[in-house]
């Protein structure tokens, strides 16, 4: 899979709560940094996404820009606890898996609940 395909598969698996599939898309030593967590390693990363999925309603992708080794996905994060949060997600792809994820959004609505 190329970088754009990996991003599509990642967001689909997360939204469908297919964490077994999601785990196959990230490197064992994946790093994640965002306003709610800084994580090292695949198991902790998937567990964090699984936790966030408890309040996830849907992901509305607005734009995706990809190169050979990275992808930026701009989307609205719809949750059951807050207004939609405009979100930027950047991923680095190495060796056919996601090796690095950086997320930016305003977490105040989610944290206020």
UniProtKB/TrEMBL annotation:
It comes from the Bacteria. Transmembrane segments: none annotated. Residues 7-100 form the SnoaL-like domain. InterPro entries: NTF2-like_dom_sf, SnoaL-like. This is SnoaL-like protein. It comes from Nocardioides albertanoniae. The lineage of its organism: Bacteria, Bacillati, Actinomycetota, Actinomycetes, Propionibacteriales.
């Amino acid at each position: 899979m190329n970088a754009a395909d990996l991003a599509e598969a990642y967001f689909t698996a997360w939204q469908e709560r297919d964490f077994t599939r999601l785990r196959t898309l990230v490197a064992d030593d994946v790093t994640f940094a965002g306003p709610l967590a800084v994580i090292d390693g695949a198991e902790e990363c998937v567990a964090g996404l699984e936790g966030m999925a408890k309040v996830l309603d849907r992901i509305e992708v607005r734009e995706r820009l990809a190169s050979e080794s990275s992808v930026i996905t701009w989307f609205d994060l719809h949750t059951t606890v807050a207004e939609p949060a405009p979100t930027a997600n950047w991923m680095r792809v190495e060796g056919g898996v996601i090796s690095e994820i950086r997320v930016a959004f305003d977490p105040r609505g989610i944290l206020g609940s």
